[in-house]
Automatic annotation (TrEMBL), chains A, B, C, D:
GO molecular function annotations of the record: acyltransferase activity, transferring groups other than amino-acyl groups
PANTHER family (alphabetical): DIACYLGLYCEROL ACYLTRANSFERASE_MYCOLYLTRANSFERASE AG85A (PTHR48098:SF1), ENTEROCHELIN ESTERASE-RELATED (PTHR48098)
Natural source organism: Paenibacillus oryzae
Name listed for the protein in its UniProt record: Esterase
InterPro entries on file: AB_hydrolase_fold, Esterase-like, Mycobacterial_A85_antigen
């Protein structure tokens, strides 16, 4: 793989921020030249100016940043095998939300980041080329991306979500009272929540009511994860509302990188409907 | 600016190697949308999928790597002001040559690197969009790029070159006897040199003889630089051969970042015939 | 110089965060061996297990992170010449404060960071070895460090401060009404401010009243900086209160890296009472 | 974990080079204060100025650099669980040798690197705190470190070595004729090899003859690895010479990160005789 960390100043955040990007370069070769990018040399595809990759926005968990999932798993190799590009923003425990205290991380991730990434890197535009996968806090982030912007993502994967934005209003209200203050510091209080931009159940109902195309949802959690019931509940509500959702529980696994290393592989290799090939400009 | 360090495995080198890339992102905005990329908002140009930048290959000196010129100068700001993208390979004291001991850095920098960079990043293809600027060992590297591949570079800048490939055959022979063994370890000995791929004078003569288009050459050196005479000599030979070359000597300056910080600015802001604007796909 | 970026999870922030550290390695040599670290070889001092460096906490400005001051100035070289170690945290526009929304950046920078840095890196402990220098938002951060923890810093430098914590209560109240919402999102409102931990005037008065040893304060600003009056005002109040403070205004310079590149050099080379030598364990 | 990449100029290499260092920071806390570093808070040990860690030099393979093993495995977590610090140099396919073409990587790794790392980072000095683990080309590198400098390493691990320095003189001679030119470009030819600094069998015989203390050797390889016989042969010679060596073959595994991820865990968690605790200054 090729990997990089890009540091630039985001306009929407008004912050210098980091993005990790990885490309499946071990499967690419310059030796094919420009004549026939679709040919293969020893199983490799051509580098070619103007080529693009399907893109998975890979969302880190709470307390982490854009580097951690790459460091704690074998994620680069999973992306390599599936010929997909990964992009990870760093969201500073914002729950991937437009926070009460000013930083608009949701708008950043859904509006600014794709334009920047498609402008500066070889990321294929278009809903059918765009996916989101998140773990822990990033799992809820992925749900929020898919439910609030169903026009942008072909499919989303929530691994062990449960903290932050959720489809379960009762669960949300409880989370405002947790000893752990992040939800109440970041998202609206009891009175402002229902129907707000953070109320994912409203977003899901709007998709149904509006007859909008929704992403495919995939949800996975370890059977021993302390947050298992909340994750299951998000699945249950999506399923009851009639959205296209799969759920898988991993027996014996918990809320840690033992589970995530396995399921990031599964998400990229099995769940997501990826093309698993570069996209050349003549297509 | 936006800056990144890309780590990937080069095919030609068969090494995991680093590339520093910087983009003039402080002059870009997502707020213009896609409708009119040529409009300006507060002096900024639009991010737009498919946009490209003119590209300067910025070549580090001996004992350095791809990060050092960025760390020791205000180079990011010079690139920003001139709306150009910078790309720096890391060449491990190879003199930017195909070394005797196996690593083909010249082929890497001129053949593989541009294809990779134009495939994965927003680097505009084409000779008229491609420049090379080097300092110290990288100055000779830039000369070599321009003389051996005049088809690839619109203009090249040599700042304080003098070590490695040169237009002065007598000087080259002397450098084989230096206490400092890098030239004799890397490049051909006395008997194999003349007419070899490393003999820049032959390359220059071929350009003239073949009536090929040559890049514009710009050479700068500090008057107090220990290597000043060798740099001047490269200028003199280029000029005598009738190539398009400018020479400037900075009074009182030496072989260090005092000189390079000033002259990297001059090279990007004044010498190179840059467009100083992004290139959008509809152009 | 040697430079690194350390990524680890801060306990107080409960975030994976980045720290830039640079060491004056160009002035060090392994060739001296262990026998006589005080000898010099070609002007270099010895690497020696157990050696320590005086440490300057270098505080970035608003919208920046730990990397920006190093990228936009020649800071590594200024540190090299003064044989000092630099440490920069990344504070996500928190004004170096314990924010209303939960992240305790002030405690992180003053309590956790020094312990971590002195445990994992060669940073000399003790007030006489510890300094803070900040630019823009980091200038006010440096003032806050010196006034709230006068026991920790020998001297602090504020370059172009003005946003966030200040000695001017009237100015603070005005800043709550700025269109720019960062101050009111981060720090206390009008009613809670006076006497709070964020009220630097109270802190300064306590130092005087308690007869505590204060750091030496150095304040610099460009004459054309839009924030010049607020910076001058912080100087004026410190001076009126009888603290040890110097002020310098740079004619014709503004709120940008033209000024900061010059004055970071001045701060490290002239203002701060540095030893300009490593500290070996036998001293 | 905490991880960093340090870029500095090596004296012996005369190159700006990268070192990856990781620390087991997830197991450390600042909340214990300085009074009792041996106490534990929720299973964590204290950060404390002057603390040190046992250090494993982790040697990357051919075509890789200091970052690759961390990116392709879960190595940070293995180091975390075993409370050990990892240090990885980047050796540019030099076979960890003093190369024919001038770069003295062996001297760099064994003489300069430990002094630099112990001077700038919290690496415990002394043979009993120092280990080497390598994979592929790095496996032979680890053998060479242990056999040529038995005074420096308590134990070394060779995972899937086989290329470069070896204990098998016949195999070495054959490798000079490989299509793959790295051995003959880097190491001595047939006539100069026997008894040279690169002839590991001589080094092993000297240890025995001199009655020197040797490190413990651990060798592992996948049963399906193409290089399996060469690895086994290195084991066989060490064993015949009477050195302390273990050998383990992993059924069904090959020369890839499937094997290395498992066996790096095994090496750190089981094979190496680590203390698995920080070392505080009062011990």
């Amino acid at each position: 793989m090729g990997i990089l960390r890009f540091s630039y100043r985001s306009e929407l955040l008004s912050l210098t921020t980091n993005i990790t990007v990885c490309y499946p370069t071990a499967s690419l070769t310059t030796s094919l030249g420009y004549q026939d990018p679709h040919a293969e040399v020893k199983g490799k595809k051509a580098y070619r100016p103007g080529m693009k990759f399907q893109t998975v926005y890979l969302l880190h968990g709470g307390g982490e940043d854009d580097t951690v999932p790459y460091r704690y798993t074998q994620l680069e190799q999973f992306a390599e095998r599936n010929m997909v590009m990964l992009v990870s923003p760093s969201v500073n425990d914002s729950l991937y939300a437009n926070t009460k205290y000013g930083f608009k991380y949701f708008d950043y991730v859904t509006q600014e980041l794709p334009v920047v990434v498609q402008s500066l890197f070889a990321s294929a535009p278009g809903r059918s080329n765009t996916f989101a996968v998140g773990l822990a806090m990033g799992g809820n982030g992925a749900l929020a991306l898919g439910l609030k912007r169903p026009d942008l993502y072909e499919a989303v994967v929530d691994l062990s979500g449960g903290i932050g934005m959720t489809l379960d209003r009762v669960g949300y209200m409880e989370s405002l009272d947790w000893e752990f203050p992040i939800v109440r510091n970041t998202l609206p209080g009891k009175d402002e929540y229902a129907g707000s931009e953070h109320d994912l159940r409203s977003c899901a109902e709007e998709i149904i009511a509006g007859g909008k195309q929704a992403p495919a949802f995939f949800i996975g959690v370890g059977s021993e994860d302390f947050i298992r019931d909340r994750v299951y509940n998000d699945y249950r509500v999506l399923d009851e509302l009639g959205l296209n959702v799969s759920y898988e529980e991993a027996p014996g696994l918990g809320h840690d990188y033992g589970f995530w290393n396995l399921y990031l592989d599964k998400a990229l290799s099995t769940w997501l409907p990826l093309k698993r090939t570069p996209i050349y400009g003549d297509e």
